[in-house]
């Protein structure tokens, strides 16, 4: 009896980290082949789940792109009564550029301002008869950095700009800035709420689908436990199987998304009045694609790990 207790288990071929990993991966692949239908259902569920999230992210990324383009219209204009000498203009520009949040400063002379005004009244030039360029003040148009385009940051910027010597009046389209800030806050909140709901729904669906996969092989798990297999020995192939399922599902979802995206760009001209490519419709950035793939792998791993708790005691 003591000899039996001291008997060592037979070693695996090529035992060690590499040998064990090869054994567990081989076992996981064998399980997938032996339960092809259930695994296809699981991979299909993960594919659909990741595809839904990726479509949402694609829409959100493009909405943010549109919002960022709109934000470029957030511009501050500083007026001064008389034309500045080149030295005075250089000094004023350097002071404005020194204000945190300044991106670009463009000088608009009285002549340039009058030219723009005339272009806006194209077809009604008679209204400008007898009017000289002196009626319009010279100014500097200031483009702000993206982080300084919300209403609070613009208000702080304008207060600092008014303190610059030579500036007599400042305009910044307060109503436009307020609407832009409200829209961006709403977009981020809606994205966060909808994204969180989708992630929770996906985790629930995938976890329960993988649980069905584990449940269909509960007898195998019970037999392994009865013959003395360790928890790690039982769990490892199933965890690797979950990782492979998640990777396959995420990869397939990204392939489908990429195909749909380019098919849409190629055929959009047939049913839309504008060209999406020219309008700036963008695909997911690489970091988002990598994140989705890793999320699929984690979904498979977490789904397998949580499902195994019911059949393998911790």
Describe it:
The protein is an alpha+beta fold and 314 residues long. It contains 10 helices and 4 strands. The protein has 2 domains: 15-69 and 182-268 and 275-308, no CATH class; 75-172, 2-Layer Sandwich (Alpha-Beta Plaits). The chain has a 4-stranded antiparallel sheet with strand order 2-3-1-4. Helix 3 runs antiparallel to helix 7 (174-215) and helix 7 runs parallel beside helix 10. The longest helix is centred in the middle third of the chain and has 42 residues, at 174-215.
Computed over alpha carbons, the radius of gyration is: 32 Å
- Indicate the proportion of strand residues: 5-15%
Largest beta sheet: strand ordering: 2-3-1-4
Q: Can you give the helix content as a percent range?
A: 55-70%
What's the structural domain tally? 2
How many individual β-strands? 4
Structural class by secondary-structure content: alpha+beta
Mean pLDDT: 76
- From N to C, what is the helix and strand string? HHHEHEHEHEHHHH
Head-to-tail CA distance between termini:
28 Å
What gross morphology would you assign?
Answer: elongated
* Number of helical segments with 4 or more residues: 10
Give me the secondary-structure topology.
Elements: H1 2-6, H2 17-34, H3 36-71, E1 75-80, H4 86-97, E2 102-108, H5 110-120, E3 138-144, H6 151-162, E4 169-171, H7 174-215, H8 218-226, H9 231-267, H10 286-308
Antiparallel strand pairs: 1-3, 1-4, 2-3
Helix pairs in contact: 2-9, 3-7, 3-9, 3-10, 7-10, 9-10
Subcellular location: Cell inner membrane
Membrane topology: Multi-pass membrane protein
Protein name: Cell division protein FtsX
């Amino acid at each position: 009896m003591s000899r039996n207790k001291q008997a060592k288990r037979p070693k695996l071929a090529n035992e060690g980290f590499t040998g064990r990993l090869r054994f567990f991966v081989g076992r996981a692949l064998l399980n997938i082949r032996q339960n092809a239908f259930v695994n296809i259902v699981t991979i299909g569920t993960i594919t659909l789940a990741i595809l839904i999230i990726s479509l949402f992210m694609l829409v959100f990324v493009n909405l943010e792109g549109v919002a960022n383009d709109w934000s470029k219209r957030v511009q501050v204009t500083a007026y001064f009564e008389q034309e500045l000498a080149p030295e005075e203009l250089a000094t004023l520009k350097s002071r404005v550029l020194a204000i945190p949040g300044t991106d670009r400063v463009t000088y608009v002379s009285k002549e340039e301002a009058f030219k723009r005004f005339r272009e806006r009244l194209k077809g009604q030039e008679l209204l400008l008869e007898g009017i000289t360029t002196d009626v319009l003040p010279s100014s500097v148009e200031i483009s702000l950095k993206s982080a300084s385009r919300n209403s609070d940051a613009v208000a702080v910027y304008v207060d600092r700009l008014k303190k610059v010597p030579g500036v007599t009046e400042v305009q910044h389209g307060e109503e436009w800035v307020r609407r832009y800030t409200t829209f961006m806050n709403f977009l981020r909140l809606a994205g966060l709420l909808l994204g969180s709901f989708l992630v929770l729904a996906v985790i629930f669906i995938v976890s329960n689908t993988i649980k069905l996969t584990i449940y269909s092989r509960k007898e195998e798990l019970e037999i392994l436990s009865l013959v003395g297999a360790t928890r790690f020995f039982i769990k490892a192939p199933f965890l690797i199987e979950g990782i492979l399922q998640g990777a396959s599902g995420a990869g397939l979802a990204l392939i489908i998304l990429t195909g749909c995206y380019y098919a849409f760009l190629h055929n959009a001209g047939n049913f839309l009045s504008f060209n999406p490519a020219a309008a700036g419709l963008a695909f997911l950035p690489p970091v988002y694609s990598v994140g989705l793939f890793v999320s699929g792998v984690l979904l498979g791993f977490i789904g397998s790990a949580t499902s195994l708790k019911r059949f393998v005691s911790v």
